[in-house]
Design brief:
heterodimer, A: 452 residues, alpha/beta, Rossmann fold, Hypothetical Protein Yjia, Chain: A,domain 2, 3 domains, 7-stranded parallel sheet, 6-stranded mixed sheet, globular, B: 342 residues, mainly beta, 5-stranded mixed sheet, 4-stranded antiparallel sheet, 53% strand
Chain lengths: 452, 342
């Protein structure tokens, strides 16, 4: 529990989203029956199937309407304003609220309701949005359903349910996919919706801290390559074997590491090389090692082999436009064995998902000017708000000893003092944006202009 | 607030502690008893002279949303159990009428001054019933939940409001419904006592009103929060509106309030949670979430003339028909009676 929840008298509200069949109702029934020490009032959607007779379960007839609030137009859940306004009058009978949305619901209106209505924002605190996904089916929904992707993008916690239906590799690639959309969420794995209830509550601890710890690359620029690896190679002839993949070519950069045995020491050089004019490589030519962008032509029908001549023993960094597993790439050395990598990592790839949902984090260490910041956020959101699903952040505001927290939904946001910075903490400002068409350079540049 | 020192502090004539959050108060037609509805579903009957509890009945399974007397001395109540009930206090709280709706809650209730019928709204419909519980009329399904019901004084006509429109219905169906649309979520309708104007707060931080004769409407926007409480003065010349901490009083005298500035009452720190004009004089009683009750003379003095306090946050206030006392209920289950320094 953080300092905020100790002083905050508002009733925490958890929003539960997820498609039909994800296990949302199973989870809800567990929440209502298990001994977890919380008294939870549930606002169920009109098609809800809670199988438990409980006087604190209220059926809501979802009423979404557009509201003009000053210069901002947004959609809210009118039924929630009414229901919560009445529920607060029996405050003694519950200590938290859970709102279940319909399967196809856009979480936006629910979340916005808590920002727009003054009475609700005074008495309730949106603690978190929990999204249940069906591990077996979510991949197909992400591609054809905007609601599915919104539910993932909005989430503070994501429950990967029915993991028993897929194998480990599928599970790993699903997690990668979801994390590329929403790296700020807390991920929980489950079969039959078995997750600790406590893990779904008190999500309001502004998960930016965890997001940045778990995904250090989150604050990095977007790289034009998906994968990089370091290998110690002996001089000699190497053959790269590609199985037919989805692409007619793949770009690659190979650099001698020259006594800098860390991948990160070379990624900036690779970044620059990826925008250089490419050198065409096919089975008759040899891969270039050094400052050049190799564009390897691949056959879409049959395997492709290209050769690489390593001039001397040493460590080499390889950066690839696509993940090597997409082509089942293996690099066979002079000893006829596949080479192994001393270090390898994936890079966040946003270059081929420009119009899909992603996330960007920006950071500055110097204190912010509150007026500049406020002006920038208002200006930014008035233009780009519809494309932004969630925003979270911690802020170091000039002239204030408190750590401020920031959160927002579309065009609406709140900034409030959370607690004093702790002695061992380095005051800094970090913001995470989850939405469509985010431009990191633009955001970072504008964020930096808010320095005091 | 330099003039606050001239403000008079009023002590309660009596206080009474009830089990739960006071949802509504209603003074009997004879002025001798006070009926109190609470969040436990109970109706308590108090002696107005000393606050003694005369009786207590469990009428609803869930919290009560509204409570009113009819002229014949019956009590009509609506609840979060989806029901409306007619109770006879003289038969020890016997429920003589029981109306079940298909909605989860009956949100509001109004008794007609002319016909003694009552109206309830539940979900997207409102209905009208005789004082003994016989069905009279049901509205069409509204496009959203009906937020409140009221009768236009002296006419028997019913008003409903909700998202997108305010509608006037004739329960006897001699006239077609009149509907005025407005793209916004309208709260409970407040017809003026003279039956000339319909006012309603709106979720988008504005107050909207319509002149019944012409249908001409006006919007008063720029409130700092949603105007959750409205009340008319007895002469229909003043409309008090509260939004968060602010109390704004509009004057309908001399062609206003269009083009005029409202009278802004300087209120204490807590948001306003209840409001009632005096039954005859232009005196306004406000109650706030911090338990403060203030008495104002809008248009005369922007600071309060008297103050009293409740134990919990004020949930409802009402004047007695003797015109010199008022009662208040709070969220801790306290009811208090006060004498206004008039």
């Amino acid at each position: 529990m953080n300092d905020q929840s100790q002083t905050d008298q508002r009733v925490p509200v958890t929003v539960l989203t997820g498609f039909l069949g994800t296990g949302k109702t199973t989870l809800l029934n567990r929440i209502l029956t298990e001994e977890h020490g919380h008294r939870i009032a549930v606002i169920e959607n009109e098609f809800g199937e809670i199988g438990i007779d409980n006087e604190l379960v209220i059926d809501a007839d979802e009423e979404i309407f557009e509201m003009n609030n000053g210069c901002i137009c947004c959609t809210v859940r009118g039924d929630l304003i009414r229901i919560l306004g009445r529920l607060i009058q029996r405050r003694d009978s519950f200590d938290r609220i859970l709102i279940e949305t319909t399967g196809l619901a856009d979480p936006g209106p629910v979340a916005q309701t808590f920002f727009v209505d003054d009475e609700l924002s005074r008495k309730f605190r949106l603690d978190g949005i929990v999204t249940v996904v069906d591990a077996g089916h979510v991949s197909q929904h992400i591609d054809d359903s905007p609601e599915c992707i919104e539910q993932i993008a909005f989430a503070d916690a994501i429950i990967l349910n029915k993991l028993d239906l897929i194998d480990e590799d599928q599970g790993a690639s699903l997690r990668d996919r979801l994390q590329s959309i929403n790296p700020a969420a807390r991920y929980m794995e489950a079969e039959h919706a078995q997750v600790p209830i406590g893990g779904l509550l008190d999500l309001g601890g502004f998960d930016i801290d965890r997001a940045l710890t778990l995904n250090p690359e989150f604050l990095e620029p977007e790289y034009p390559f998906e994968w990089g690896g370091l290998a110690t190679l002996k001089s000699g002839s190497y053959r790269w074997f590609f199985k037919p993949g989805a692409d007619p070519s793949i770009d690659a950069v190979v650099l001698a590491t020259d006594e800098a045995p860390r991948l990160e020491a070379h990624q900036e050089a690779a970044l620059r090389l990826f925008s250089a004019p490419p050198v065409g490589i096919d089975s008759k030519t040899t891969l270039r090692i050094g400052p050049a962008l190799n564009r390897i032509s691949l056959s879409m029908a049959t395997p492709t082999t290209v050769t690489m001549e390593v001039p001397e023993d040493g460590q080499y960094a390889i950066f690839l436009e696509h993940f090597p597993h997409e082509f089942e790439l293996s690099i066979i050395g002079p000893d006829e064995k596949p080479i192994s990598f001393d270090e390898a990592r994936d890079y966040i790839d946003d270059h081929e998902h420009d119009d899909t949902v992603g996330s960007v984090a920006v950071r500055i260490d110097e204190p912010l000017d509150p007026e500049k910041l406020n002006f920038w956020i208002m200006e930014f959101l008035s233009e780009f708000g519809p494309e932004i699903f969630r925003m979270k952040g911690v802020l170091n505001i000039s002239g204030h000893d408190d750590r401020y927290v920031f959160q927002g939904v579309h065009m609406l946001f709140d900034i409030e003092a959370q607690r004093p910075w702790r002695p061992q903490e380095e005051p800094k400002s970090e913001m995470i944006f989850i939405g469509r068409n985010l431009n990191r350079e633009f955001l970072q540049q504008r964020f930096e202009q808010c320095r005091a | 607030m330099s003039r606050i020192k001239s403000m008079k502090a009023i002590d309660a004539s009596w206080r009474c502690r009830l089990p739960d959050y006071v949802r509504d108060l209603a003074v009997s037609p004879e002025g001798d008893r006070l009926a109190v509805a609470d969040a436990a579903g109970l109706i308590s009957m108090l002696d107005i002279s000393d606050g003694a509890r005369l009786a207590q009945w469990r009428i609803h399974e869930q919290p009560i949303t509204a409570l009113q007397w009819t002229d014949q001395g019956l009590l009509v109540s609506s609840g979060e159990d989806g029901c409306a009930k007619i109770t006879n206090p003289d038969l020890d709280g016997k429920v003589i009428g029981h109306i079940e709706t298909d909605a989860i809650w009956v949100d509001d209730l109004a008794v007609c001054d002319k016909t003694q019928r009552f109206a309830i709204c539940a979900g997207r419909r409102a209905s009208v019933w005789t004082a003994t519980g016989e069905f009279v009329f049901e509205t069409e399904r509204h496009q959203s939940t009906v937020s409140g019901v009221a009768f236009i004084a002296g006419t028997g006509l019913l008003v409903t409001a909700g998202y997108g429109a305010i509608t006037i219905w004739d329960p006897d169906q001699a006239q077609e419904p009149r509907r005025w649309t407005w793209k916004g979520s309208l709260f409970k309708p407040h017809p003026s006592p003279d039956g000339q104007i319909l006012a309603s707060g709106c979720q988008d931080d504005s107050v909207h009103f319509w002149r019944l004769e012409t249908g001409r409407d006006s919007q008063m926007s720029g409130y700092p929060a949603k105007p959750a409480h409205l009340d008319w003065s007895a002469d229909s010349l003043l409309l008090a509106t509260s939004a968060g901490h602010a109390v704004l009083v509009w004057s309908f005298a001399d062609g206003g309030p269009e083009g005029t500035q409202p009278d802004v009452l300087q209120v204490n720190e807590a948001p306003i949670s209840a409001m009632a004009f005096h039954p005859r004089a232009p005196l306004l009683l406000t109650g706030a979430e911090d338990g403060t009750l203030l008495l104002w003379e809008p248009g005369t003095d922007p600071t309060p003339m008297a103050m009293a306090t409740m134990i919990g946050g004020v949930s409802t206030v009402s004047w007695l028909s003797d015109e010199s006392h008022f009662v208040a209920g709070d969220d801790q289950g306290t009811v208090g009676l006060f004498r206004a320094p008039l």
